[in-house]
Amino acid sequence: MEEWRPWQPPADPGQAARESCTMQSIISGVVGGGAGMALGAVLAPFNSSVGVESEHLPIKEQFRRGLREMGTQSRSWGKNLAVIGAVFQCSECFVEKSRGRSDRWNAVGGGCITGGVLAINAGPQGMAMGCAGFAVFSYAIDALGFGHMGE
To answer: PANTHER family, from UniProt (predicted)?
Structure first.
């Protein structure tokens, strides 16, 4: 078994900034927000009620309503995925640095914390279910090899 060693910060200040949990969390939030906005724009037509209620309107007004709906969906998806990305990355980073090693159990710990935080309004049982669900999802993603794409 490997001996536990606390995480040592890198000597290079630039690398230290990139490896800080705060910076990683900010980057993940920004990337998650951008991906969420794109996903919201793509998925907006599939769950929109604009077409049903605006059949009798001129095409220009239908187009405006469609764009408005797409903007609303984009903002909603962007905000949600930004929060998920930032919370997950921050919690996984803290778990990794406290454990002193990088493996798939960091993703499970980060997933559990993220699921619990996201379900905080659902009470203790909801938080437990969120923790378990997100931990299993994180483990599956990591086990399939998607957790370490850049390494």
So the answer is: MITOCHONDRIAL IMPORT INNER MEMBRANE TRANSLOCASE SUBUNIT TIM22
Overall residue count recorded for the chain in this entry: 151
Q: Which two tokens stand for residue 94?
A: 């803290």
3-state secondary structure the chain: CCCCCCCCCCCCHHHHHHHCHHHHHHHHHHHHHHHHHHHHHHHHHHHCCHHHHCCCCCHHHHHHHHHHHHHHHHHHHHHHHHHHHHHHHHHHHHHHHHHCCCCHHHHHHHHHHHHHHHCHHHHHHHHHHHHHHHHHHHHHHHHCCCCCCCC
CA distances from 128 to 11, 14, 78, 103 (A): 39, 38, 25, 23
pLDDT at position 53 is 65
Whole-model pTM: value is 0.75
